[in-house]
Here is the input.
Amino acid sequence: MDTPEILQKKLYFLLEQLQNMASDLPPKYQMRLPIELLSSLANCLLNDTIFEIVKGLLEIQHVTEQHLYQQRLQFINNKKMEEEEKLKGLNPVQKVEELQQIMKKHKEELKIFDMNLVLQLDEKVKDQQQLLEQAGVPGFYVTTNPLELKVQMFLLDFMLRLSKMTIPT
Here is the structure.
């Protein structure tokens, strides 16, 4: 267990680092990160569990993104095979006409598929927001507001960067 002096030293270090990171952001984001929020976040980060949660969320996000990317590649590959099958045995004029129809249809299907992937990613973001809010991390709550999402992304980045630093004891 850290002494009050060591905890205070850690807190000052974390707050100073967070203030430095926040000061590098464009003004429209800086104004959304008041000293009270940064101070609360620094205090919250005295608990190493928060760093572990953030690292775990990052790993889950990478795995999810890779999985969704593989699904998309598989979808495109399946459509390509479907296209080749439909074009077999057609004369050149028929192939051109059929290919135009297939490409239009595949473009629409891919758009729908991609929209579904985005919805899955949005759901993952919501899950992350809820988890961080439940863990008591300041600045995190469920939102779809683009500006607030960007601020939360900056806060996550700050926490990841801090997790890689040697915090004085």
